[in-house]
Amino acid sequence: MNVAVATIGHNRSPFEMSKEAIEDLYGEAKNWCDGEEIASQEQADMVQKLLRDIQSAKKEADERRKEEVKPFDEAKAEVQERYNALIGKTKSVTGIAILAEDACKEALAPWLRKVDEENRRKAEEARKAAEEKQRLAMEAMQNRKSLEDSEAAERAVQDAKAAEAEARKLGNAKASAKGAGRAVTLRDYYEPTVVNETEFARWIWTVHRDAMAEFLNTMAVKLVASGVHKMPGVEVKHERRPV
Predict the structure, then answer these.
(1) 3-state SS class at 7
(2) Are the C-beta atoms of 137 and 160 separated by less than 8 Å?
(3) pTM summary value
(4) Residue 184 · residue 176 · CB < 8 Å
(5) Measured in whole angstroms, how far is the alpha carbon of residue 111 from the centre of its chain?
(6) How far apart are the C-alpha atoms of 54 and 23, rounded to whole Å?
(7) How confident is the model over 75-109, as pLDDT tens digits?
């Protein structure tokens, strides 16, 4: 296909040139691809030529697009590179802010874990003490025989409630560092390791069958693309398409 080239006096941009060429080819394709079947080798050859012209125009438009965005991509890459040295975290670069941030977290971790363990110990002691006071308060309520017994039982109930509230407060206490801004605290992270693939696959198939089916279908598509056309439990549809 001969794509028009701008000459003196033409002010069309590369995009406008591609737009005009592709729109013309699109209009020609509408004439040929109108639902009527190809009836001769001559018609087939003409449609084949139209297909190649479209592909050629598409390729040239993509090359023009790349050329047009190149300055923006280069400018973006330069800005990204400068900032990566400060705040980036990629496979090849770790910015100095990230390094400093991680170092501070590593320095805080032992202290926060120590405080967290102490908080847990105090919370457990408070919980046991509250349970004991609740037991004593129930006994006092059950063994009331006089007004003084009732007063003592009521005091025991209030004491048990106060102990329960204190235990709850200690249970909610968090180890933290609060120098400025958002406090630094400990957060739970969980990292799985599959130790029995068969058991895990059976569980996934039972509980998350849709996700498993999607994964298996993706694997089947990859295998077929690599040339594997016979697999147990998979039906491979075969058809021939124009390229």
Answers:
(1) coil
(2) yes
(3) 0.67
(4) yes
(5) 32
(6) 10
(7) 999 999 999 999 999 999 999 999 999 999 999 99
